[in-house]
Structures are given as C-alpha cells and as structure tokens.
Design goal:
Layout (H helix, E strand, L loop, with lengths): L6 H6 L8 H13 L2 H7 L8 H6 L23 H26 L5 H8 L7 H25 L4 H25 L5 H38 L3 H8 L15 H9 L17 H31 L2 H6 L2 H38 L16 H7 L2 H17 L4 H24 L5 H7 L1 H11 L2 H33 L3
C-alpha cells in the first residue's frame, strides 16, 4: 500500500516552481512506494532546503564564544615564538654592547696576563705550597680516626684533636695569606677554596666515622656472640666496605678528590668511563674557561675601572648607571661559571673517578622563592648543610627558623672568608649580602609567588652581585692605590 506524502514535504518543495510539478509528483510517488530501507538512503540527498540543513550548515557560522589568545582565561600557553624573539633581541642588544666595547677600548684580551694573577714572583709559589700542605691535615684526620676505631683513644680526646685540626685548616692558610706579600689575590682565593673544601670534607669524614662507631657499640651492647660480631662488621663477601675497613689512604683520597662534600663508606659507582662524554665535557671546560677570562678582561675590567670616579664623587645617578652596566656582563659570566663548574668540571671529575651520583644542581632557574634557590643551585653544599649542620641542630632541639638562620650564618662566614682574606682587607659586604637573604627569603615567600617570586629571585641575582663587586673593588682601590698616592 503506497504511503501518502506528509504535509511538510510538500511545503519544502514549493519553491521549485510549477514547471517542475510533474517531476516532483513522480519522485514523491516512487520514493514513498519504495521499501523504507532504500528510501532512507535517497531522502537525505534531495531536500537541499530542508529545515535540518538550514539550521546546521546554512548559512555557515564563523563566530563562537571565546577569549582573546593572550587573556589568562584562554588557557593558551605556547609562547615559544615569543621566547625565540626574546633570545634574538638579547643577542642583538649584547652584540651592540660588545661592538661598542671593541670600538671604545680595542682588544684587551691577554692570556699571558692571567699567569700574573697567580704568580707575582715566578720563583715563589705560596698558593701551590698551601695546597700541598693541605695533605698534612687530611692525614692527621685519618690517623685520629684509626686510633678511635682501635679504641686506643677516647672519644673526648678524638673530638678535641679533630676540632684543632679543622680550625687549623681554616686559620693556617689565612695567616699565611695575610703575612706573605708575594701571594696574589687570585692565588689566595684558589688556595683558600681548597682548604675550605677540605674543611667540609673532613668534617663529614669525622661525623660519618663517629656514627659508625656509635652503631657498632650499640650492636655490641645488645649481643656479644660471634654471629653478632660478624653482623656488626658487615657482609665483607658482598664487596661493600664496612667500618673500620674504610680507614685507608685509598679510601680517604678517593673521597677527597670525589665531587662531593658528604662522606660515605660506599659511593655509587658508574660501570665504565664514557670516553665521548668525557671529551665533550673537557672541550666545554677549556672553551668556557677561555670565554670567562676574555669577558672579564674585555668587558668587566673597563667597566669597573670607569666606576671609580662616580664613587669618589658620590655621583649617585652615575653609580646606578655603572651598576646596571656592570650587571649584564657580571651575570653572564656567573651563568657561564655555573655551567663550567657544576656541569662540565664536576662531570669530568666524576667520569674519571666513576662517581655515580651526578646530581650537582637542580632546576634553580625555576625558583619561586629564595630558599628554593639556595637549596637547588649547589647540591653538594646543600647536602652537607642538611646532613651535618641543619639536622644535627634540629636534633638538639633548635627550631626550624634557628637552624635555617644558622645555615645562612655559616654560609655568610665562608663567603666573607673567601673574599676578605685574599684581598687582605676586612669589609663585611659579602657577609651582609648573605645575611640579607634571610629577610629577602621571608618577604618573597610571604608576598610573592609564581612568576613574581621567580622574577624577584632573578633580580636579586642580577643586581646583588654587582653591588658587592663594586663595593669591594672601590675599597680595594682606595686602600691600595689612593693611599699610596
């Protein structure tokens, strides 16, 4: 039985005109007489003016509810092109500054001059002698620990001898630097840095061996059996070094040369030396070292020299201008030094010694607080402070704020020690700069977060260091040059 066409079908086909009426009727009759399955395949192809077509596709829509791309509500986060633009602008602006420097001063890079920074007298090498003498303190610490392990020395006497040895490590090179006139500031910085590292390493060496003795004594108090004694000495067959078998020259000097400040009886070791990796890091060391020396001679030294007159005249506008001019090369050299030391140099040492723990730094560049920066930019020092300073203070009942202040105080002392003693003048600028990190850390952590906190950290790094550099250079210039004139 044929199906009658619906009312809306006739209305939809009205617009074709009377001249197509016969064709229209023929199509309708034949379509509605077909089976439903076949008719359903043909119907969507015919009604070009049907309401469903008009409502969904005609006319085509080009607008929808949406925010502008740079609005925070848009959720857009791919700014790679803008980052590339910033890099291009940075390169171009610094290229202009470098070209201006060459036109104004000429080529000032002199590799031979670097040697004079270490050697004032070619027949007197006091800095090298100080580094060689450092072996005496290391061997003294080893023999003290051997006596303590054997039980032939009391813990109290051992603690006193260790304290004297550690204090001598810091005081002896400082006294020699102040007394010997032939030692240069750069050579003194290098020698004092070696002794500071030795101080931190031997402090850790003392603590870890003391913890091993305490553990051995605690186990011995619980059991006196032979099995308990073997367990206390560790599983020697497994290849791991156990106390007191670690008290050897080989073990001590491996630790002294390893890129870490925290002592362990068994360090993680890499399976082999990767020659290609080692050669790449060596090439980076040589290249970035030359680059730093060239930038200091060509860019920083003239800027610092030209900053002395505004300091003498107390011309504050010129002082600020010189400070900002010095901030760019100083920060660039600091970034290069970070990569050269923490990535290239420490990885070279670790690869040669097959030292497995290569976490020398973390993502400090993403720091949103000052505290996060200091915890992540120098991991060897952070681990030492956490293990041998912060946690022991907390165990003794000190509060968190007191322990953090103590860590900053110790860091401020060593910063001042490595600057004032080589320059042979005592100015507290480095100490004040480090202690100023405490209120800065509180302010940034309390009021600034996210990108604002990260920007505050970067500003403190870019501006803070040039201020200290100018203060020390000005005082050194006044003390050594204006006074002699």
């Amino acid at each position: 039985m044929p199906i009658r066409p619906s009312q809306h079908w006739g209305e939809a086909t009205e617009g074709f005109g009377h001249e197509c009426f016969g064709v229209r009727m023929w199509l309708c009759i034949n379509l509605f007489s077909l089976p439903a399955s076949r008719a359903g395949l043909l119907l969507p192809l015919l009604p070009l003016t049907s309401p469903s077509f008009l409502s969904s596709s005609f006319p085509p829509r080009c607008h929808r509810l949406q925010d502008s791309l740079l609005s925070s509500a848009s959720g857009y986060s791919n700014y790679r092109g803008i980052l590339n633009w910033c890099v291009v602008m940075l390169v171009l602006s610094n290229a202009r500054l470098f070209l201006e420097n060459l036109i104004k001063y000429g080529i000032l890079v002199d590799p031979i001059q670097v040697i004079s920074l270490f050697l004032k007298d070619p027949y007197s090498w006091p800095a090298l002698c100080l580094i060689i003498v450092a072996n005496v303190f290391a061997l003294a610490a080893l023999h003290i620990e051997k006596r303590l392990a054997a039980g032939s020395m009391s813990e109290h006497l051992g603690a006193v001898l260790h304290t004297v040895n550690l204090l001598t490590i810091l005081c002896f090179p400082a006294l020699v630097t102040l007394a010997v006139t032939s030692i240069t500031p750069v050579g003194a910085v290098f020698a004092l840095s070696v002794h500071t590292i030795l101080f931190l390493k031997l402090f850790s060496f003392k603590d870890v061996n003391m913890w091993c003795r305490e553990k051995r004594q605690a186990k011995a108090a619980r059991t006196r059996s032979a099995a308990g004694s073997q367990k206390a000495n560790g599983n020697v067959a497994s290849g791991a070094v156990a106390y007191p078998a670690n008290l050897t020259y080989r073990d001590l000097y491996y630790f002294l040369f390893a890129p870490t400040l925290c002592y362990e009886l068994n360090f993680p070791r890499s399976p082999r030396v990767r020659k290609r990796f080692l050669l790449r890091r060596l090439a980076e060391m040589l290249f970035f070292l030359q680059l730093m020396v060239g930038l200091i001679q060509q860019w920083m030294v003239p800027t610092i020299q030209n900053s002395m007159k505004p300091f003498r005249d107390m011309d504050y506008s010129r002082i600020i201008e010189r400070l900002l001019k010095l901030a760019v090369p100083n920060h660039l050299i600091w970034l290069i030094f970070f990569y050269w030391f923490f990535h290239s140099s420490l990885n070279v040492i670790a690869e040669i010694m097959q030292f497995g723990d290569r976490e020398f730094y973390r993502d400090w560049w993403n720091s949103e607080t000052v505290t996060y920066f200091w915890q992540n930019w120098n991991i060897p020092v952070h681990k030492w402070c956490l293990r041998h300073f912060y946690k022991p203070l907390m165990k003794k009942g000190a509060g968190k704020w007191v322990a953090q202040t103590g860590v900053f105080f110790a860091s401020a002392f060593f910063h001042e020690y490595l600057v004032s003693v080589p320059l042979k003048m005592f100015r507290p600028w480095a100490f004040i700069g480090m202690m100023a990190q405490i209120p800065l850390a509180w302010f940034v952590g309390r009021f600034l977060r996210g990108n604002y906190g990260n920007a505050a950290v970067w500003i403190s790094l870019i501006i803070g260091q040039p201020i200290a550099v100018l203060m020390y250079v000005h005082d050194y210039y006044v003390l050594n040059y204006e006074g002699s004139q």
